[in-house]
Amino acid sequence: MELEERRDSVNSVVTKEGESSGSSRRRRLFWKLRQRWKLLGLFEIDRDHEFYPLTCDLKEGLRDSIQDVVCTNATQTTLTDDDYNAKLTQGHEGYTMRTYAGPVFSHFRQSLGVSEETYSRSLSACGFYLQFISNSKSKADFFLTNDKRFFLKTQSKREVHFMLQILRKYIQHFQAYPHSLLVKILGVHSITRAQDKKKYFIIMQSVFFPDERITGRYDIKGCHVSRWTEPEAEGSRVLQVFKDLNFEGNVICLDQQRQWFLRQMELDTRFLQDLNVLDYSLLVGFQLLHPDEKNQNWSLANLIVRTKRSVNGAGSPTTSHSASVPGTIEEESGSMDKDGDGIENSSTSEITSGGRVPLKKIGPQHSTVSDISDVVAQNRRLLPNYRNPLHVMDGPELRYFVGIIDIFTVYGLKKRLEHLWKSVRYRGQEFSTVSPSRYSTRLCQWAETHTV
After folding, report:
1. For the segment 131-153, what is each residue's pLDDT rounded down to a tens digit?
2. Are 388 and 210 in contact (CB under 8 A)?
3. Which of 46, 73, 87, 236 has most Cβ atoms within 10 angstroms of its Cβ?
């Protein structure tokens, strides 16, 4: 309660009573320096930052919208058409927050093992948001929660409407393939502030979480034109995301998990192809394994825990708790998600015979995965006991963070014309804007040739 009062006090001082001329001058100076030096990386959105008032409003609005969805759907057991079309509008002093399809995203968060308490705490904590400035051509603004667990990204009205239009198919894809590499989108909102245009934004799980020991980050599209990032001088602390041409000479060593990865890439890109989508990226992060993490000899108990987590635990949106397995350690069971503070949160779900997705469990639970053939059909794997298991794979020497992001670009008339123009300008070269079928095939080929 004290934290909320302090944040509300800051909001009042900054956004309601006006900004001091000194703060305004510092913001303008910061902006000019950033534009001049083209800075990359993470910057704390403190009281002198141009986006500080906005992020204060976002924290308050998101906290209230999450709480409202939880209270409204406390007794609801199935998702309906109304849930997919839901719009929650909340008025605040100086701004209005709107939440889209709140019950659907609430359920999806639970199915991934992200409790509403953890989600709300991360988004509305007193710690400053971080601004991520990349070398991407996108005009979007990227904000990162202070614990670096969730991204907030501004989107165009068209992109948001497209996301809501495909939301049912998106959820169904995760029901069919619970270990999908697609970015986990956890909320869609808009905020309208006084004298500002309405801003639409999505909230998604960070692929690179936790990021403390990640030594390299790559954004891969499977082509060559404009796919090089000039590295900073050695010793620079600038956070860079490199591209395809920077990756040449490297391989992803997955060993026994390679076939799973290639199959999941095929499944996910085929889904995006069916949506007529292109320009998405495969994010890849590298992290050295500690000596005691290499060539682990898993005990039978650990294998049982990992199997249970993969089939019945967090990260499996179509399943729920099964009976306890002899030899498992309850506090390490798959249904538990340890957040950054070491607090465990239990969250599971299942599918009803009618195809609807319950929002909470009622009565005795049974696994919906009846035999190994179901696991194989859904391309599941033994999930690691990490805080981001769906996006993490271990090889012999390195840990890899992988995920497919930016899934909102439709191959419409504008992109078709862009393809024709680039076909002339870059004749014989591989560029980004190609048909969804070609894009899907090309990215899968990249994964095939760059993994061992």
Report:
1. 988 766 667 899 999 999 999 99
2. yes
3. 73
Residue-range domain boundaries for the chain: 2-205, 214-289+395-449, 300-332+348-380
Could you tell me the CA-to-CA distances from 117 to 1, 113, 252 in Å, in that order?
Answer: 15, 11, 36
Burial of 258-274, coded b for 16+ CB within 10 Å and e otherwise, reads bebbeebbbbbbbbbbe
Q: Which residue has the higher pLDDT, 269 or 342?
A: 269
In CATH terms, the superfamily for domain 2-205 is Phosphatidylinositol Phosphate Kinase II Beta (3.30.800.10)
CB atoms within 10 A of CB 421: 11
> What sign does the dihedral 410-415-419-422 (CA atoms) show?
negative
Q: What is the mean pLDDT of residues 424-428?
A: 93
Q: Is 141 exposed, middle or buried (0-12, 13-18, 19+ CB in 10 A)?
A: middle
Percent of the chain predicted with pLDDT > 70: 74
CB atoms within 10 A of CB 238: 12
What pLDDT, in 10s, does the model give residues 210-228?
998 999 999 999 999 999 9
Measure the CA–CA gap between 364 and 439, rounded to whole angstroms.
45
pLDDT of residue 136: 64
CATH number of 214-289+395-449: 3.30.810.10
150 Cβ neighbours under 8 A, 6+ residues apart: 119, 122, 123, 144, 186, 203, 204, 205, 206
Give the global pTM.
0.79
Decide: 116 and 109 in contact? Cβ < 8 Å.
Answer: yes
Residue that wins the pLDDT comparison between 277 and 195:
277
As a whole number, the mean pLDDT across the chain is 81
